[in-house]
Specification:
There is one protein chain. With 100 residues, the protein is α+β, with helices and mostly antiparallel strands. The chain has a single domain (2-95), classed as Non-ribosomal Peptide Synthetase Peptidyl Carrier Protein, Chain A (Orthogonal Bundle), CATH 1.10.1200.10. It has helices at 21-36, 57-71, 86-95, and strands at residues 2-8, 11-16. A two-stranded antiparallel sheet has the order 1-2.
């Protein structure tokens, strides 16, 4: 369910109450493309951010900040690890009640 939609800096920004896992995967793929230059077709649920997608520490920080903004949540640094997968990020978001 979408509460409101707007456009900023050429990309759509949606504030949602909840997301499906498929919507979250698509959003994270776009987010990683924007922040880290990773082609969206390379982002899979089982992709490890560091080892598979080569996200460096700065890219990880930027991606997490963007994810927090996009999903309207706060992600604690203790929830992150070098072996974090895209699915792991989706599970973190689900634990915050924004993924169903």
């Amino acid at each position: 369910m979408v509460e409101s939609t707007s456009k900023s800096a050429g990309k759509p920004t949606e504030i949602r109450k909840t997301w499906t896992q498929a919507e979250a995967l698509t959003s994270i793929s776009l987010l990683l493309n924007t922040t880290c230059g990773i082609p969206t077709e390379e982002v899979k649920a089982d992709s490890r951010l560091v080892d598979d997608l080569n996200v460096d520490s700065l890219g990880m920080l930027e991606a997490i900040i963007e994810a927090e903004d996009a999903f309207g949540v706060s992600i604690d640094a203790g929830e992150l690890s070098p072996s974090l997968t895209v699915q792991g990020l989706i599970e973190i978001l689900a634990s915050k009640g924004v993924i169903h």
